[in-house]
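A.,

Following up on our hallway conversation. Structure tokens first:
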């Protein structure tokens, strides 16, 4: 008595099962890779003519939301992040910007709050505060500082 009526040989069923397993693994792999943070972006660094502020600018995209951001640090220790997010999907997405500032062996991370952006729309977001580490090491940041800003979804 036959166990199935597919009229396929055991070898054909094995190949079909293997193909299904590979497709499932590829799908899960792409899902996991979709949750990995974006890689470092090219960031421009501009020191003001008076030497009192540094502006880092870049763009990024993640999971269908893209935008540009400027991260400004000042000699008095104040910093600000101003960015945008354009949602290419139909459903609402929540995003924020995270900026990692590194110099020598030191680093600080600052971020905006989260903001929802409806489908096919663009929203702006900003944040600002004071950081004593930036004020203390501003000359080193101006000379050797680097910033990496990423858009984060969710």
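Then the amino acids I'd put at each of the 154 positions:
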């Amino acid at each position: 008595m036959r166990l199935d009526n597919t009229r396929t040989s055991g070898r054909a069923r094995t190949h079909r099962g293997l193909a299904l397993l590979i497709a499932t693994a590829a799908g899960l792999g792409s899902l996991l890779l979709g949750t990995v943070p974006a890689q470092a972006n090219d960031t421009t660094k501009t020191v003001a003519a008076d030497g009192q502020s540094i502006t880092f600018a870049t763009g990024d995209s993640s999971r269908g939301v893209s935008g540009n951001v400027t991260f400004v640090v000042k000699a008095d220790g104040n910093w600000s992040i101003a960015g945008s997010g354009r949602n290419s999907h139909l459903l609402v997405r929540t995003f924020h910007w995270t900026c990692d500032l590194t110099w020598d062996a030191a680093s600080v991370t600052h971020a905006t709050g989260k903001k929802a952006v409806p489908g096919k729309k663009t929203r702006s977001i900003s944040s600002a505060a004071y950081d004593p580490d930036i004020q203390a090491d501003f000359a080193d940041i101006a000379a050797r500082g680097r910033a990496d800003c990423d858009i984060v979804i969710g």
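The radius of gyration is 24 Å. Curious whether your intuition agrees with the design.

B.
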